[in-house]
Amino acid sequence: MATIKDVAKLASVSVSTASIALNGNKNVKTETRVRVLEAAKKLNYRKNGSAADLKKSQTKTLALIVDDLSGPFFSELIKGVQDVTLSKGYDLITCSAIGGENSTPTRFLLEKRTDGVIILAHTLKNEMILHASMEGFPIVLLDRQLDSRHTIHIQVDNEQGAYNAVHYLISLGHRSIAYVSGNATSTDNHCRYRGFQKAMDEFGLEQPDKWNISGSFTEEGGYHTTKMLIMQGQLPSAIFYANDEMAIGGIQAFSEKGIKVPEDVSIIGFDDILLSRYTTPALTTIHQPKYEMGSLAAHLIFRALSGESFEQQLYTLETRLVKRSSCRQV
Amino acid sequence: MATIKDVAKLASVSVSTASIALNGNKNVKTETRVRVLEAAKKLNYRKNGSAADLKKSQTKTLALIVDDLSGPFFSELIKGVQDVTLSKGYDLITCSAIGGENSTPTRFLLEKRTDGVIILAHTLKNEMILHASMEGFPIVLLDRQLDSRHTIHIQVDNEQGAYNAVHYLISLGHRSIAYVSGNATSTDNHCRYRGFQKAMDEFGLEQPDKWNISGSFTEEGGYHTTKMLIMQGQLPSAIFYANDEMAIGGIQAFSEKGIKVPEDVSIIGFDDILLSRYTTPALTTIHQPKYEMGSLAAHLIFRALSGESFEQQLYTLETRLVKRSSCRQV
DNA sequence: CTGTTAGCGCTTTCAT
DNA sequence: ATGAAAGCGCTAACAG
Lengths: 330, 330
Description:
Rossmann fold; 12 helices; alpha/beta; 4-stranded parallel β-sheet; Peripla_BP_I (chains A, B); homodimer; DNA-binding; 434 Repressor (Amino-terminal Domain); about 40% helix; 6-stranded parallel β-sheet; DNA-binding (chains A, B)
């Protein structure tokens, strides 16, 4: 493997001149540059990025760490991040947090391989993030709180979103509303449930225990909990699913039992994932500004990188009700 | 930022001993190791990955380069890659090829930052890949041919898949079948069209020019070409869309005009993206083994990395017909 | 415009 | 079991 030394030798210049020429710097005679470039080509020279990084102590790279690269959230988020990263001339790499303690993310968080990192991953331990956080290494945490002076937080107003969802259902005339919960341990789930309750309380609505069921944040989870709901006999007139994936599983379960949405039961989801537009009926849901989240996150990283310090460390984004066809007026 | 030197000093050992202790090597007295680890903790020491890579000349990292991280293809592919990468104790990072010549992928291809790379990206220039390819740096190209001794190729049998699709349509009794083409420049598109033609020829079926329309491989492309098809008056009894996204756009266009699928027109797609299960009607399509593709790609990388040389440089994967509800018997 | 020089932080022989 | 020393490949003063 040819190094810059070999190139310099073949072009009969010093290593530094070779470096300058190779990196497109102006301060070289065109003739010399050409000679160096030709030598590089002849030797099939490839710069060693690690060596350059080591020397320059910045990598011009950002990392995005997510739990699941194939998740419905990821694709829209990344667009937001990517658009601004690219516009700043930075590279973006993404990796998944699955694989536990000593896997990929560790190296990016702990080994100074990127200039900053954006995290949307709950499997990553607090401890590790805390350990990585330090002056001059911006970390933006999405949908996750951490008590550290060195991290920046972006969250979505889950409570308000859930409140709006239920409020909408009530405005449509629904009075018996069930909550199908996601993972009980999830903060998102808690906030959404709080919003649900707040709206119910405000309108003096009861919610029998049997209509408060919990599953996991997946299509399957939604499917099974809905089956249970159906088996219990009497259905509520509307159901609030803690996320779209669950709602989609729910639609499936209803359809199998010949129960019509929204004629027999109205349902509303949360997230507004791409799929929710395509289900039958199209899913009414609470839109999360995923793109904005990504782009804000990247912006904040760059602001931090340019030395700005933040009085504000928590940014809250608003949700939006998206009316489609899964809720009816009663 | 504390370096290993600082740690060594604080622990009153030499740098080499510190390195050994820090990397969990056996040859240190437990007492010494503890002292080093404590010093590291106190100084909040973080290893500089670039320096380590520079020295070790392997990164234990693979890169996956795709055109679009948010594309429907990506998520299934990555699972396949990730599963085997993880099992080998390697890291996987992904990046998008958008951004042109001197963007992220360049650095991974050309700057020795990873031990190997898997590419599913058509925006990356041949020239660049060729330039990167060399002994000892395995590159696996998906759905793309290149004339280089140093690259390994995996492709899906697009022609056979398309042939099967059309054959199925014909077996259902369809005789007038249109082909809605993707980007004319795409090899995939060519192969699929060849398969289409082969089947048509075999059964002595004509295809009027007006039923051979081309768009782009997107939902929008499918939508617009379908609109055009409709405007031309007489419809074929079945349509083969060059991919699922286009077919989904087509369904949309038909639905807007009150034309029923599959009652009025049967449609079939290609790819079997996740979404195709959820459209109304659910889309009949040709399944591409995306997961298998990813996992095979990763396997081949590791085999190459372990010094194996390949007589075979082209692997062809078979497709599979997935019958859902968008085609009817005539 | 070009060459000399001094490391970046780490790993790794080779002695001890 | 530990330390001294060399050097991975590159960049960036600085001097000429």
